[in-house]
């Protein structure tokens, strides 16, 4: 198998017309080039160059292999450029796993900026309802970083973006409408729009109700917190959702006292991520957690 170095030397000699000039350009010696090209000719079992008193010329075999030799050298140079660009965080691919409600307020601004500032980087986005499912996806190596509420357990790196407020959304004309604040116990006294069992937010809210000595009267469930907020505004009941689920709409929102909130974090695998994941992480942390408008 011809070595890349031998092909590089062959191309250089053909470009410059002599071993001496090629050696000068490549900072080596004519004898070193001659030795490598002789080995290449033995490998191919045919002469590639006519050695003339003043320079060299390609043989028929040399002319035949020249195009492929150039492609091999150019491909190797492209591999080097791409590898270095990826290492520097200016090219490549970053796979982002994200909780559904966090995509628009937290990840989308970073994605938009990266499309403008890092056109050679491909960002792949996968969305999840469950923080635990997302964490399992990341742990399986199918994503480079995850953006979610803090999961129950994680063996890799955890970077805190901030604390996201959780609020009640009440229908128009509801007894809680217009209230300055409310409590978990007050909400539990009314029909509630709940989330699908197994959802991390559902488990957390169920625990809050238990701590308050009550249970939520769930009349309808949905897998998506944003849908829960829409159902509440439509009159289905009271929804308890993170502010990222509001879509920027404060209609019907009542804050809790004491305030409720959850940590929004970025997860990286154990040992951290590559340069691209690190740069994406830095931009996410700079943006902070979603806040109530």
From TrEMBL:
PROSITE patterns: HTH_LYSR
Pfam families attached to this UniProt entry: HTH_1, LysR_substrate
Domain HTH lysR-type: 2-59
Entry keyword annotation includes Transcription: yes
GO molecular function: DNA binding; DNA-binding transcription factor activity
Keywords: DNA-binding, Transcription, Transcription regulation
GO (cellular component) term, any one: protein-DNA complex
InterPro entries named in the record: LysR_HTH_N, LysR_subst-bd, WH-like_DNA-bd_sf, WH_DNA-bd_sf
UniProt xrefs under PANTHER family: LYSR SUBSTRATE-BINDING, TRANSCRIPTIONAL DUAL REGULATOR HCAR-RELATED
Similarity remark: Belongs to the LysR transcriptional regulatory family.
Protein name in UniProt: DNA-binding transcriptional LysR family regulator
């Amino acid at each position: 198998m011809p070595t890349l170095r031998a092909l590089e030397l062959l191309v250089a000699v053909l470009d410059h017309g002599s071993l001496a000039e090629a050696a000068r350009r490549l900072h080596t010696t004519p004898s070193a080039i001659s030795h490598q090209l002789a080995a290449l000719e033995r490998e191919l079992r045919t002469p590639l160059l006519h050695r003339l008193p003043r320079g060299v010329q390609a043989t028929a075999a040399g002319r035949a292999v020249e195009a492929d030799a150039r492609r091999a050298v150019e491909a190797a140079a492209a591999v080097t450029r791409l590898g270095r660009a990826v290492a520097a965080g200016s090219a490549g691919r970053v796979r982002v796993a994200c909780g559904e409600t966090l995509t628009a307020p937290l990840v989308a601004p970073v994605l938009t900026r990266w499309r403008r500032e890092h056109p050679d980087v491909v960002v792949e986005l996968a969305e999840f309802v469950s923080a635990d499912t997302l964490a399992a996806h990341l742990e399986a190596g199918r994503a480079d970083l995850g953006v979610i509420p803090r999961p129950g357990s994680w063996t890799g790196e955890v970077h805190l973006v901030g604390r996201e407020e959780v609020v009640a959304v009440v229908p128009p004309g509801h007894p809680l409408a217009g209230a300055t604040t409310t409590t978990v116990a007050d909400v539990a006294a009314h029909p509630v729009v709940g989330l699908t069992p197994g959802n991390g937010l559902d488990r957390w809210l169920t625990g809050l109700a238990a701590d308050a000595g009550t249970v939520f009267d769930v009349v309808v469930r949905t897998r998506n917190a944003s849908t829960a907020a829409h159902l509440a505004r439509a009159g289905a009941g009271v929804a308890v959702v993170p502010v990222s689920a509001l879509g920027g709409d404060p209609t019907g929102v009542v804050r809790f006292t004491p305030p409720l909130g959850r940590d929004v974090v970025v997860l990286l695998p154990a040992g951290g991520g590559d340069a691209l994941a690190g740069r994406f992480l830095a931009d996410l942390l700079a943006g902070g957690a979603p806040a109530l408008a």
